[in-house]
Amino acid sequence: SRPRRISVLGATGSIGQNTLDLIGRDRESYEVVALTGGRNIAQLAKDASDLRAEIAVTAHEDALPALREALAGSGVEAAAGEAALTEAASRPADWVMSAIVGAAGLAPGLAALEQGATLALANKESMVCAGPLVMATAERHGGQVLPVDSEHSAVFQALIGEDISAVERVIITASGGAFRDWPVERLAEATPEEAATHPNWAMGQRITIDSASLFNKALELIETREFFGLDPARIEAVIHPESMIHALVGFCDGGLMAHVGPPDMRHAIGFALHHPERRALPVERLDLTQIGQFTFRAPDETRWPALRLAREVMEVRGLAGAVFNAAKEVALDAFIAREISFPRMAGVVEETLDRISARGGHIAVEISLDNVREADQLARQEARLIIEQV
Ligand code: NDP
Ligand code: MG
Q1: Residue 262, SS3?
Q2: Checking CA distances to 256, which of 172, 249, 277, 338 falls within 20 to 30 Å?
Q3: Quick check: 361 pLDDT over 60?
Q4: Spatial CA neighbour of 49 closest among 26, 22, 20
């Protein structure tokens, strides 16, 4: 059979590099169309040359000369900027990995679906900001969206051969992140460096800090709601410090199907890459007697208000997810820049949601790429004002 044409958006990141690792092990099976990155030009150019990609794109226009220079003589086309990202994503491909971080991943992911590709979705922000639009775009173009987030891949796998109407509940797990055992009073002093260390998973900086605040889990609750079309009351998050059980699906007969595996994203990426087949993957095999025990705790909403905010967003839907995500991105930037404290991030997000919904009406509407962008911009401005007013 002919090689599968694949593109990787966000190729220089943690998910992107794990994806290229799997592809690099079986080069003849794939033809690489587009690789995209941001500031890491050396990595982007190296991977694009090694994998003989058609085109390499950086998100930043000012980085184009450096990318051109790094690719000189390689035969790989170079491009830069937002429009170039979307153009690269719309080049015909069978399978596209969406692994850009943040709301910037939405438009390129939609472009991939519009050209009929299967979209492997790591960029959870796409589902949070515009879940109904992503799913409708896939349906309209006969494309499929496969979850890459480990919890959602776990749920997807537990649902194979099952009827969604027999699902009573879905439980996604959270490690609790860097501060799960800190006294709540100490959180005000937490630094970005402390927040960016994860007990179990090696991930990008932003998602690691979001794991400590549980904003990552908040995004994932919303992602679960949008991906599987479940009533929010059926979706739960539980603290599971070992990070071995990724999710559980509870059925109407009382049975719970748990997905267990080592904290290695190559499982979920590989599952999406080979779907509908299941193939061998280079992940560790768990020794249960070595692990000894799996433990669980209820999430404490005083420590992690992000979960309560996610419940509000799941009720309102419409543009609430876009506002929530944008405010979260701005608050995270401000925390990384040491402008606000760790606990203040949730306050900024909550006030942004309150202010924008207080203006009435325009949150609970049907969404399009344009109004999602508008809500995103508005929320970013509002969140900045809230940060600067103190
Ligand atoms: P990283 O920060 O490691 O990588 C992000 C990628 O996006 C890089 O290629 C980066 O380029 C690129 N990028 C950054 N900003 C922009 C922008 N404005 N426009 C276009 N491209 C940009 O993130 P992760 O790999 O950790 O995460 C990627 C996505 O996958 C996120 O949505 C995350 O939530 C999700 N995810 C990640 C998991 C993980 O284990 N890491 C697990 C589950 C989901 P460069 O680095 O060159 O600047
Ligand atoms: Mg996850």
Answers
A1: coil
A2: 277
A3: no
A4: 20
211 is in an annotated binding site: yes
Give the pLDDT score at 362: 61
Residues whose CB is less than 8 angstroms from the CB of residue 265 and which lie 6 or more positions away in sequence, other chains included: 14, 15, 18, 148, 150, 201, 203
CA 385/CA 390 separation, integer angstroms: 9
Cα–Cα distance measured from residue 241 to residue 324, given in angstroms and rounded to the nearest whole number: 26
Contact call for residues 336 and 342 (beta carbons, < 8 A): no
Where in 83-144 does DSSP place strands (E)? Answer: 95-98, 118-121
Cα 201 to averaged position of ligand 2 atoms, centre (Å) = 10
Question: Residue of the nearest CA to atom 36 in ligand 1?
Answer: 122
What is the SS3 assignment for 172?
strand
Which three-class secondary structure state does DSSP give residue 185? helix
The ipTM value here is: 0.99
**What is the token pair recorded at 86?**
């979307």
328 is in an annotated binding site: no
Tokens matching residue 348: 């900024």
> Ligand 2 mean position to 128 CA, how many Å?
13
341 lines ligand 1 (CB under 6 A): no
Q: Which helix (H) or strand (E) holds 8?
A: strand 4-9
How confident is the model over 49-68, as pLDDT tens digits?
A: 999 999 999 999 999 999 99
Cβ–ligand 1 distance for 52 under 6 Å, the answer no
Q: What was the pLDDT predicted at 70?
A: 98
Distance from residue 363's CA to the centre of ligand 1 (Å): 27
Residue 156 CB neighbour total at 10 angstroms: 23
CA distance 134 to 128: 10
15 is in an annotated binding site: yes
DSSP category for residue 361: S
Mean pLDDT, to the nearest integer, of 276-297? Answer: 97
What residue type is 84 in one-letter code? A
